């Protein structure tokens, strides 16, 4: 008996569907974590190491893992199951693997590659703000704050409330003329509304207000007394406790900073130029050479470099920084000042 082509095709289709349906009903059980194989271990941290003019990789203790042979090299990156670094080998972009093997990378954009050198506060916790004309009395402009509902009701005199102090007993606010001051609920003004911007609260108890006036910054206490004159271009807290401040003035050629306590006493004897900071260190130059301080003003990495970047700043990763020595050679250091570099 002959079967037409159409009929044969239908039979095959039915058999396939039956097979699929049968397979879908098989109870394969639940897979346990063990059946996926051992967990993937974190790869060894490899640090780009410059030896002479070529880059290789060492472990954190400077034990050579990948011999120097690359023109340029960056830190290793983790992408799903891959662990690789961008580099340049004999003028060509490559991907470098942790065993030292590499392949051409035609899509590199250079973002992770070291290119050989460096070029020279808690808001008002309110759920709702309402306005009330009745809070304007006898020339005073008051407000009320309900700590349970979180509703703040204010005079129309205020544009916004920046920070509430002691559950609303005082408030840093901005008035309708865009000036900042400190006021009590009755409308009594503690710090006059003559400042342009609230920068932050400093001191161990946050008892000092950093404010800006006429493009200069200074510090006022909660009695309204100016305790640091308004002559600085920037005042920044360099630790989470607010007990260390970096006071900065701009000159026509540089940015000069001093590190002081919340009592405005110097904790580092000297002026830093081009200073910046992260959550661990303050980086800057003294007498034309860069180094690193902690927030106690102690030198943790000496001032010996021609240029430097903050720890964790690209192209480095957390725990490392890119520096340039006085010969103009750039390489990486760790937070203990260990240099991943040798001339030969």
UniProtKB/TrEMBL annotation:
Signal peptide annotation: 1-24
Keywords tagged on the record: Signal
Keyword Signal listed: yes
Domain of life: Bacteria
Signal among keywords: yes
Record-given protein name: WG repeat-containing protein
């Amino acid at each position: 008996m002959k079967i037409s082509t159409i009929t044969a095709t239908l039979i095959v289709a039915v058999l396939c569907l039956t097979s699929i349906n049968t397979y879908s009903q098989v109870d394969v059980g639940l897979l346990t974590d063990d059946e996926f194989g051992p967990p993937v271990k974190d790869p060894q941290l490899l640090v780009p190491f410059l030896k002479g003019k070529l880059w290789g990789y060492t472990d954190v203790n400077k034990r050579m893992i990948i011999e120097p042979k690359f023109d340029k090299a960056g830190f290793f990156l983790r992408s799903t199951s891959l662990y690789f670094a961008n580099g340049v080998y004999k003028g060509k972009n490559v991907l470098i693997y942790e065993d030292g093997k590499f392949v051409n990378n035609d899509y590199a954009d250079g973002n992770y590659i070291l290119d050989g050198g460096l070029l020279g506060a808690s808001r008002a916790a309110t759920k709702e703000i309402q306005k009330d004309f009745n809070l304007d009395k006898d020339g005073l402009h008051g407000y009320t704050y309900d700590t349970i509902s979180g509703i703040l009701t204010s005079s129309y005199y205020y544009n916004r409330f920046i920070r509430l102090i002691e559950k609303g007993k005082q408030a840093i606010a901005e008035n309708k003329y865009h000036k900042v001051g400190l006021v009590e609920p009755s409308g009594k003004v503690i710090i006059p509304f003559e400042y342009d911007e609230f920068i932050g609260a400093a001191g161990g108890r946050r008892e000092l207000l950093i404010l800006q006036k006429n493009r200069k910054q200074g510090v006022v206490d909660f009695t309204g007394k100016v305790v640091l004159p308004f002559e600085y271009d920037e005042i920044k807290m360099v630790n989470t406790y607010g007990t260390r401040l970096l006071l900065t003035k701009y000159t026509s050629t540089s940015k000069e900073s001093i590190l002081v306590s919340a009592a405005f006493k110097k904790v580092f004897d000297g002026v830093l130029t081009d200073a910046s900071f992260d959550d661990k260190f303050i980086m800057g130059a003294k007498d034309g050479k860069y180094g690193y301080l902690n927030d106690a003003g102690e030198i943790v990495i000496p001032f010996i470099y021609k240029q430097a970047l903050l720890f964790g700043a690209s192209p480095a990763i957390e725990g490392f920084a890119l520096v340039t020595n006085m010969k103009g050679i750039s390489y990486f250091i760790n937070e203990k000042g260990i240099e991943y570099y040798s001339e030969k």
